């Protein structure tokens, strides 16, 4: 019973450390920098999480005779096709009190270990195999020679000799600092790797770590989770370019029949092209240098927030029947703009935190405070959009505008399908994160953000098809039907100001006199048809 309990307790501790690390750390790039970071006590050890990333196996492997983790020559070797974790300028600094207690002539007065392990080998750390819940070796456990006192207990993987990897750095005499020798650890097996700095000596309590580690995949510095997104954003840039060219050709072909709504759609397509291109160049630069370029990232984040905001506003005003059953938004224009401004600010703040945050800058709880406002505002958009669609459909049914009614039914169905897909995907995302707390499925993680980008693109395609410029814009353009009190104002056609909304009271001669002007804006056909019916 003691064995089972000890093993389970230790396993939960190791998994807890990995889980905590995966949530707390927000990485600025493949270069992990440490600035006087403190170690955290856990059982009979002290640890600091140095980073975690998905790494692919090296495509080019050095000869076993040439592989040397601590050789300075490794820094000058070609790195293309290689995957590695490199330790640069790592310094451990203990307290002055701890240093003064040591013998000046003693060679080693404290050991700090760097432990690199693949997440599947998490149970190989600690004394679970020795019927103990200890992480560091004790005199009792050292009796059978399975571990050394003062060192972290590691059980080597028989299928992968030398792993988990242990790299030791010693304090000499009564020195306050210990410099870690340059190490370049090559990765020859694909997996999610975690790095921990650990020590077992309680006298080293208060020790701080400074320096940095560089993580690289065979194709560049992009973390394994993000590497597929560079290709994805490149393809999406091409997709938006194709959509933009097709829309531009249609726009030019029917430029005389363009209505205000077409300019809004054009703006969203243009923002989408810029957003995807910026993200692609941001990832390409990140992949080449190992750190995120501040300028490009800022622009990409800003364009992303603007595009999200404008896209939601486009869906909202289309749902309200803007340019179809109402000439203006009337008194609710200020409310729509206010919602857009608030959403932009909330979305911009969240994007900045997610893409510009440094290690340990923001915890999971702090991020929630930024996610919640965006989620609530998205809910407001959804409720308002479907509420407006319902009212627009009712008006079209009353006025017997069959062509426009069919148009809005197709739009409503498309929007409903996208909402259902979004809800289903959110459920999958929650399941994915809950079932994979240690990022063991990191190679599939890129599809989570990619889905939302693809869904927004497909929905934009639907709007472009339904509201494409044509020779007969009156099939969806505002044609001067009776207006509600809240819809009074200047018409999009600029032909008149309608007060009271009762066209039937206008004199027939005045209506015929305005036909010529209406033809200029594509409304003449509708007016003539009304005359014939009367």
Automatic annotation (TrEMBL):
<protein>
    <recommendedName>
        <fullName>GOST seven transmembrane domain-containing protein</fullName>
    </recommendedName>
</protein>
<feature type="transmembrane region" description="Helical">
    <location>
        <begin position="296"/>
        <end position="317"/>
    </location>
</feature>
<keyword id="KW-0472">Membrane</keyword>
<keyword id="KW-0732">Signal</keyword>
<dbReference type="InterPro" id="IPR053937">
    <property type="entry name" value="GOST_TM"/>
</dbReference>
<feature type="transmembrane region" description="Helical">
    <location>
        <begin position="329"/>
        <end position="346"/>
    </location>
</feature>
<feature type="domain" description="GOST seven transmembrane">
    <location>
        <begin position="228"/>
        <end position="473"/>
    </location>
</feature>
<feature type="transmembrane region" description="Helical">
    <location>
        <begin position="226"/>
        <end position="249"/>
    </location>
</feature>
<feature type="transmembrane region" description="Helical">
    <location>
        <begin position="407"/>
        <end position="426"/>
    </location>
</feature>
<dbReference type="InterPro" id="IPR009637">
    <property type="entry name" value="GPR107/GPR108-like"/>
</dbReference>
<dbReference type="GO" id="GO:0016020">
    <property type="term" value="C:membrane"/>
</dbReference>
<feature type="transmembrane region" description="Helical">
    <location>
        <begin position="12"/>
        <end position="31"/>
    </location>
</feature>
<feature type="transmembrane region" description="Helical">
    <location>
        <begin position="366"/>
        <end position="386"/>
    </location>
</feature>
<keyword id="KW-1133">Transmembrane helix</keyword>
<dbReference type="GO" id="GO:0005794">
    <property type="term" value="C:Golgi apparatus"/>
</dbReference>
<feature type="transmembrane region" description="Helical">
    <location>
        <begin position="261"/>
        <end position="281"/>
    </location>
</feature>
<keyword id="KW-0812">Transmembrane</keyword>
<feature type="transmembrane region" description="Helical">
    <location>
        <begin position="446"/>
        <end position="468"/>
    </location>
</feature>
<dbReference type="Pfam" id="PF06814">
    <property type="entry name" value="GOST_TM"/>
</dbReference>
């Amino acid at each position: 019973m003691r064995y089972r309990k000890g093993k389970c307790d230790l396993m939960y501790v190791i998994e807890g450390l990995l889980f905590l690390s995966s949530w707390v750390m927000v990485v600025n790039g493949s270069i992990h920098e440490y600035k006087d970071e403190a170690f955290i006590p856990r059982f009979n050890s002290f640890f600091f999480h140095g980073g975690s990333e998905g790494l692919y196996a090296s495509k080019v492997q050095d000869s076993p005779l040439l592989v040397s983790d601590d050789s300075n020559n490794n820094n000058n070797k070609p790195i293309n096709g290689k995957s590695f974790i490199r330790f640069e300028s790592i310094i451990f600094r203990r307290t002055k009190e701890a240093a003064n207690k040591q013998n000046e002539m003693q060679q080693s007065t404290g050991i700090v270990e760097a432990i690199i392990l693949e997440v599947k080998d998490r149970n190989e750390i600690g004394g679970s195999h020795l019927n103990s819940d200890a992480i560091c070796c004790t005199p009792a456990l050292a009796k059978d020679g399975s571990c050394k006192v003062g060192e972290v207990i590691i059980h080597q993987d028989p299928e992968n000799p030398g792993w988990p990897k242990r790299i030791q750095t010693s304090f000499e005499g009564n020195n306050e600092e210990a410099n870690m020798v340059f190490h370049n650890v090559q990765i020859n097996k694909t997996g999610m790797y975690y790095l921990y700095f650990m020590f077992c000596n309680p006298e080293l309590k208060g020790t701080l770590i400074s320096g940095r580690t560089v993580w690289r995949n065979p194709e560049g510095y992009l973390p394994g989770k993000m590497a597929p997104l560079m290709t994805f954003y490149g393809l999406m840039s091409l997709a938006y370019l194709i959509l933009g060219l097709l829309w531009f050709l249609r726009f030019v072909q029917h430029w005389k029949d363009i209505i205000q709504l077409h300019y809004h759609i054009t703006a969203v397509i243009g923002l989408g092209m810029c957003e995807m291109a910026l993200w692609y160049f941001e990832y390409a630069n990140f992949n080449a240098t190992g750190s995120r370029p501040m300028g490009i990232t800022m622009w990409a984040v800003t364009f992303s927030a603007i595009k999200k905001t404008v896209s939601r506003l486009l869906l909202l005003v289309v749902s309200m029947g803007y340019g179809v059953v109402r000439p203006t938004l009337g008194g609710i224009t200020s409310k729509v703009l206010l919602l857009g401004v608030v959403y932009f600010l909330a979305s911009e703040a969240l994007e900045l935190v997610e893409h510009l945050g440094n290690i340990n800058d923001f915890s999971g709880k702090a991020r929630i405070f930024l996610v919640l406002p965006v989620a609530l505002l998205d809910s407001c958009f959804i409720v308002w959009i479907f509420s407006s669609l319902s009212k627009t459909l009712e008006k079209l049914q009353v006025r017997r505008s069959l062509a426009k009614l069919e148009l809005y039914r197709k739009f409503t169905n498309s929007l409903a399908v996208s909402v259902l897909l979004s809800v289903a995907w959110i459920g999958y995302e929650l399941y994915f994160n809950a079932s994979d707390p240690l990022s063991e499925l990191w190679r599939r993680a890129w599809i989570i953000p990619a889905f939302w980008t693809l869904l927004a693109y497909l929905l934009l395609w639907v709007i472009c098809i339904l509201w494409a410029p044509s020779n007969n814009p009156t099939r969806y353009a505002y044609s001067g039907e009776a207006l509600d009190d809240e819809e009074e104002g200047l018409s999009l056609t600029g032909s008149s100001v309608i007060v009271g909304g009762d066209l039937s009271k206008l004199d027939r001669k005045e209506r015929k006199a305005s036909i010529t002007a209406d033809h200029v804006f594509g409304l003449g056909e509708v007016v003539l048809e009304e005359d014939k019916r009367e």
